[in-house]
Prior knowledge:
By secondary structure, the chain is mainly alpha-helical. The chain is built from 3 helices and no strands. It has helices at residues 4-28, 32-50, 62-74.
Amino acid sequence: MPSDDSLRVREFVRMFRLISSAKDAAEALQLRNLVHLTNMALLQVALDWDGLDPERDPDIDLGGLVREKARIAMRNGRENLLVLPHS
C-alpha cells in the first residue's frame, strides 16, 4: 500500500499535468490571458508541493522550481493523461 507521502506526490503530479495540458491548449488557441493564469497556477502548485512561501524566503528560484516539478510530473510522458476536446 502506498504511503501518504507517495499519494500526496501523485496528486501534485496529477494536478501539475492537468494544468500543463490546459496551458498547452490555451497556447494553441492563443489565449494569452489564460496562458498567464495557467503559468501562475503551475507556480502555485510547485510552491504548495514543497510547502514554500516566497514571502518568507525571497531567494527561491521560482523558475527553477517550476522546471524541476515539470520534469518530475512529465517524467513518464503524457501517455497517461487523457484530455478530451470540447465539442
